């Protein structure tokens, strides 16, 4: 296949070359992921407007993770026969639908539905965009190491998650109508992205025979169960840390540090995700065993600093700890994916990776719900410290087990 390969067309727009298509998909990937975390610094504004408890914020946030899990299971793989570009357009339009819901139904039930729909768009997007980027790059630069495309996909994923809270904080702090304007702006951006995507080359050939739909198969490897379980724990615990900063960071800043600056709330979440993205890029060339050692140390030190900052009411230590922990979680999750891929049976590698992602997004939802409910009955510090202790145990022990397993592979 060459860069001039004809593509399946369902648009009147002129097609672009595979190299340009690669960067278009990257930009769209980044934009949709960013919109998914824009609400992070806005949750306190909804809470103040409607007077609902902290536990409601966690339910709204958890709806997002539930949407991701459901769509990953039912739709994350259908681009293999329906086409990458087509499913990317669907994902973007579903995200645009969530923006419409935020605008037209701003009450709590509407927020839950909007976040569920937004999560569904992410479940479709992540696997599809990652696969599409790899395929576009392999055509545009056939001699290039495939790790380049994977690194760009990872940077777009985590980079978007990092930018979203910062953008939301800027809207909340400096612009009018912070519960309306961000959704209007991203609605326009998403609709434009859906149109531009129609110019991108398709990289999946239409099947010659009808395809019978089935949900995504999930598979744990029969051998090396201990390594897979450790990878699952790492993914679950790592995303639990992400979930804490994405959903409840503004609440902890307000209750523990008496800081109500929306830009600060967004910047705190930004630092965690940005550190995760940087960690994956900086330490990516190292051996997996070395990466896992760094991840274990960073998770332990970073989470301990978060706890120390919360107890001492030192905001700088709290945020610095979040950055170090974020770096560790980013490297750890990359190691978890690498471990799962290594121990998976060759014919079921996709099914095993799908299961790891589902476990990760369960970690995004369940612990945050527990923390949110616990805040109804206990002060923030009494809730945060046990959470951190469990997260340290899970991340460090998982990294150690995966590191030992790596030695034997």
Automatic annotation (TrEMBL):
GO molecular function: transmembrane transporter activity
Pfam families per UniProt: MFS_1 (PF07690)
Location, primary (coarse class): membrane
Major facilitator superfamily (MFS) profile domain span: 20-406
Keyword Glycosyltransferase: no
Keywords for the protein's UniProt record, in alphabetical order: Cell membrane, Membrane, Transmembrane, Transmembrane helix, Transport
Sequence intervals crossing the membrane: 20-37, 57-75, 87-106, 112-134, 146-167, 179-200, 227-250, 262-283, 292-311, 317-341, 353-377, 383-402
GO CC terms: plasma membrane
Record's bilayer topology term: Multi-pass membrane protein
Subcellular location(s) of the protein: Cell membrane
Protein name: MFS transporter
Biological source species: Microbacterium rhizomatis
């Amino acid at each position: 296949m060459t860069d001039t390969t004809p593509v399946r067309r369902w648009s009147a727009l002129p097609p672009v070359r595979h190299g340009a298509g690669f960067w278009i998909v990257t930009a769209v990937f980044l934009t949709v992921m960013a919109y998914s975390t824009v609400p992070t610094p806005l949750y306190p504004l909804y809470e103040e407007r409607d007077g609902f408890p902290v536990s409601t914020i966690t339910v709204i946030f958890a709806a997002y993770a539930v949407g991701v899990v459901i769509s990953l299971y039912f739709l994350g793989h259908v681009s293999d026969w329906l086409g990458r570009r087509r499913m990317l357009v669907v994902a973007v339009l579903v995200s645009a639908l969530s923006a419409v819901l935020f605008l037209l139904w701003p009450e709590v039930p509407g927020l839950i539905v909007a976040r569920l729909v937004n999560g569904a768009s992410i479940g479709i997007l992540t696997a599809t965009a990652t696969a599409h980027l790899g395929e576009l790059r392999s055509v545009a630069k056939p001699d290039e190491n495939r790790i380049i495309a994977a690194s760009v996909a990872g940077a777009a994923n985590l980079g978007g998650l990092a930018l979203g809270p910062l953008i939301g904080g800027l809207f909340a702090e400096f612009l009018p109508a912070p519960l309306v304007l961000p959704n209007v702006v991203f609605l326009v951006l998403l609709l434009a992205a859906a149109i531009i995507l129609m110019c991108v080359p398709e990289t999946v050939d239409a099947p010659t025979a009808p395809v019978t739909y089935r949900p995504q198969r999930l598979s744990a490897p029969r051998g090396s169960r201990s390594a897979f379980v450790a990878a699952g724990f790492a993914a679950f615990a790592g995303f639990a840390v992400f979930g804490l900063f994405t959903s409840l960071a503004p609440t902890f800043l307000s209750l523990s540090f008496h800081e109500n600056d929306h830009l600060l709330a967004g910047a705190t979440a930004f630092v965690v995700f940005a550190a995760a993205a940087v960690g994956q890029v900086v330490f990516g060339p190292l051996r997996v065993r070395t990466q896992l050692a760094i991840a274990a140390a960073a998770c332990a030190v970073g989470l301990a600093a978060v706890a120390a900052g919360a107890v001492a009411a030192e905001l700088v230590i709290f945020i610095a700890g979040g950055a170090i922990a974020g770096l560790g979680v980013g490297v750890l999750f990359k190691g978890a994916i690498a471990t799962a891929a290594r121990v998976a049976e060759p014919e079921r590698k996709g099914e095993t990776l799908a299961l790891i992602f589902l476990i990760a997004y369960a970690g995004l939802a369940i612990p945050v719900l527990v923390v949110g409910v616990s805040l109804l009955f206990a002060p923030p510090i009494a809730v945060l410290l046990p959470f951190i202790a469990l997260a340290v145990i899970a991340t460090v022990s998982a990294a150690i087990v995966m590191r030992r397993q790596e030695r034997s592979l």
